[in-house]
Amino acid sequence: MIDQQQGQDEAWKTRRRRAGIAAFVAGLVVTLAFFAFFPGLPHVIDWGAIVVSLIVGALARWACQSWMTKRHSELV
Fold this sequence. Notes:
Layout (H helix, E strand, L loop, with lengths): L1 H36 L9 H29 L1
């Protein structure tokens, strides 16, 4: 019984980690695409755009993992 619970916790942690990675990549790519293709911007990816994209990716990861943790605690 305890082994099954540990297995479920490990599976949940793996899903949470993968969702966090996917959210980070999505935030990064969407922000870089915004800076690259939005009309009116100088269609150049500079260091500022890269830093902002990394910050947005980190915020997306944090939000996704926080939401997943909240949902998990509600269900358990």
